[in-house]
Amino acid sequence: MMEEALKSLRKGEIVLVFDAANRERETDMILAAEHVTPEHIRILRNDAGGLICAPVSAENAEKLGIPFMTDILKVSSEKYPVLKRLSPHDIPYDEKSAFSITVNHRKTFTGITDNDRALTIKELALLCKDGQHEKFGDFFRSPGHVTLLRAADGHVLRRRGHTEMSIALMEMAGLTGVAVCCEMMDNRRGNSLSTEDARLYAKEHDLIFLNGSDLIKAYKEYKFEL
Ligand code: 5RP
Ligand code: CA
Ligand code: ZN
Ligand code: ZN
């Protein structure tokens, strides 16, 4: 199953990843940022419906110099005291948020269209792939319409979010450490899509469905073998 998932990702296909019953209990659509197209963004918008984000590996995030949003807020709270009061110390499903800054590529217009978001995400992946991290500010502006997520150091060995799981998949597939993820929502009940329905969607659309625990196990084996 894991090999199939990695093959799909290399081909630019979407895979579905459920995190865990004791975490968000969400299934995200995940794909490689270097392969993203406007068509993918349309599918994420219409069929997933959550927030379209771009997980960035800890290594790429470090080279780009992008901080966690929590660190930005902490520093800024000197000048804006309300930010201290907004501290996210009470997230019900995890200790730490992965949110970083939002960006748009400078060649986008509003930044929100399928074409614009695909451009922003793909160009970020290519910038990282080419090792041009120091040119980040030449080609991107912030704020923007793509939320960057910063993977924890050690990735899934440290934090078991979709952020780290996306990056673990990229690493195992030999793809650039930038991904795209979006939570699958339920269109009728106002909740996240149930695992059952997410599995059904995968079956109907011929997509691979992965369980977070299997993914993490495979990543540990992969790291051990290296
Ligand atoms: C951004 C989120 C999603 O849950 C996304 O899956 C990444 O977060 P995490 O790493 O916490 O799972 O919060 O929409
Ligand atoms: Ca989350
Ligand atoms: Zn998540
Ligand atoms: Zn979520």
Automatic annotation (TrEMBL):
<feature type="binding site">
    <location>
        <position position="28"/>
    </location>
    <ligand>
        <name>D-ribulose 5-phosphate</name>
    </ligand>
</feature>
<keyword id="KW-0456">Lyase</keyword>
<feature type="binding site">
    <location>
        <position position="24"/>
    </location>
    <ligand>
        <name>Mg(2+) 2</name>
    </ligand>
</feature>
<comment type="similarity">
    <text>Belongs to the DHBP synthase family.</text>
</comment>
<feature type="binding site">
    <location>
        <position position="24"/>
    </location>
    <ligand>
        <name>Mg(2+) 1</name>
    </ligand>
</feature>
<keyword id="KW-0464">Manganese</keyword>
<dbReference type="InterPro" id="IPR000422">
    <property type="entry name" value="DHBP_synthase_RibB"/>
</dbReference>
<comment type="pathway">
    <text>Cofactor biosynthesis; riboflavin biosynthesis; 2-hydroxy-3-oxobutyl phosphate from D-ribulose 5-phosphate: step 1/1.</text>
</comment>
<comment type="function">
    <text>Catalyzes the conversion of D-ribulose 5-phosphate to formate and 3,4-dihydroxy-2-butanone 4-phosphate.</text>
</comment>
<keyword id="KW-0460">Magnesium</keyword>
<keyword id="KW-0686">Riboflavin biosynthesis</keyword>
<feature type="binding site">
    <location>
        <begin position="159"/>
        <end position="163"/>
    </location>
    <ligand>
        <name>D-ribulose 5-phosphate</name>
    </ligand>
</feature>
<dbReference type="InterPro" id="IPR017945">
    <property type="entry name" value="DHBP_synth_RibB-like_a/b_dom"/>
</dbReference>
<protein>
    <recommendedName>
        <fullName>3,4-dihydroxy-2-butanone 4-phosphate synthase</fullName>
        <ecNumber>4.1.99.12</ecNumber>
    </recommendedName>
</protein>
<comment type="subunit">
    <text>Homodimer.</text>
</comment>
<feature type="site" description="Essential for catalytic activity">
    <location>
        <position position="183"/>
    </location>
</feature>
<feature type="site" description="Essential for catalytic activity">
    <location>
        <position position="145"/>
    </location>
</feature>
<feature type="binding site">
    <location>
        <begin position="23"/>
        <end position="24"/>
    </location>
    <ligand>
        <name>D-ribulose 5-phosphate</name>
    </ligand>
</feature>
<feature type="binding site">
    <location>
        <position position="162"/>
    </location>
    <ligand>
        <name>Mg(2+) 2</name>
    </ligand>
</feature>
<keyword id="KW-0479">Metal-binding</keyword>
<dbReference type="Pfam" id="PF00926">
    <property type="entry name" value="DHBP_synthase"/>
</dbReference>
